[in-house]
Write a structure and sequence with these properties.
40% of the residues lie in helices and 19% in strands. It is of the alpha/beta class and 218 residues long. The chain has a single domain (12-150, 178-215), classed as Vaccinia Virus protein VP39 (Rossmann fold). A six-stranded mixed sheet has the order 2-1-3-4-6-5. A hairpin with a 2-residue loop joins strand 5 (201-206) and strand 6 (209-215). The longest helix is centred in the last third of the chain and has 16 residues, at 153-168. It is globular.
Length: 218
């Protein structure tokens, strides 16, 4: 895939190559998906209401398809990019809008997989607040994002860890650099306190990327 000079999901080139590109750039992608699915199954009961925020081409929906079907859950994928939404293959009726503009119904489970870091910075906290407040008692909100690294030497260690694994996955060094530069202004890593202030508990971490689960007490 030719990396755009200014990263955007509103590109047919990006959309058509997204599935292989994300796995190439993020070697832990399938592991994190598996972890999300294992956790999600604990919150999808019969007739459960489930959202996939930033559904892309359907990764989470496809991974959850069996349990969604077996428990007759109502599943809604949301994706702002029209180009990505056109290529969606998975369960549910797609909503082609930004999660900023969607008013959620009360839900049992929502998954946000690499989406909040692409929102305008001033919309991250209010959007996360609005969605987590829609979680039903006993339900959960799962979020996997890129976070600002801790200070000091550890920030360099985490950065090199990510770079090393990309190289080990066979990514061309030039493409790694091009991708990082193209993300300038488009991707803004979150600060961990924003998720933790809503009660987020970490369940996954690789370098600058981490997964949190936010439960709503019964």
């Amino acid at each position: 895939m030719k990396v755009p000079s200014n990263w955007t999901f509103k590109s047919s080139e990006v959309a058509s190559h997204f599935d292989e590109h994300v796995r190439e750039q993020l070697p832990w992608y399938d592991l994190a998906t598996s972890a999300v699915v294992t956790i999600a199954r604990h919150y999808i009961h019969d007739k459960a209401r489930v959202y996939d925020l930033g559904a892309s081409t359907g990764n989470i929906g496809r991974a959850l398809a069996d349990v969604l079907r077996d428990r007759d859950a109502r599943f809604t994928p949301i994706e702002v990019s029209r180009e990505m939404a056109k290529l969606y293959e998975g369960p549910g009726q797609m909503i082609n809008r930004s999660i900023i503009d969607v008013e959620p119904e009360a839900f049992d489970l929502a998954v946000a997989f690499l989406v909040f870091m692409f929102l305008p910075p001033d919309q991250v906290e209010p959007t996360l607040r609005r969605w987590t407040q829609a979680t039903k008692p006993g339900g959960a909100f799962i979020i996997v994002e890129r976070f600002l690294p801790p200070g000091g030497y550890l920030s360099i260690v985490n950065s090199r860890l990510t770079l090393t694994e990309k190289l080990n996955a066979g990514v061309d060094p030039l493409e790694i650099i091009e991708k990082e530069l193209s993300l300038a202004g488009a991707q803004r890593p979150l600060e961990a306190y924003i998720v933790e202030m809503f009660g987020g508990v970490e369940f996954f971490r690789f370098g600058d990327f981490a997964g949190y689960i936010i439960e709503r007490e019964r």
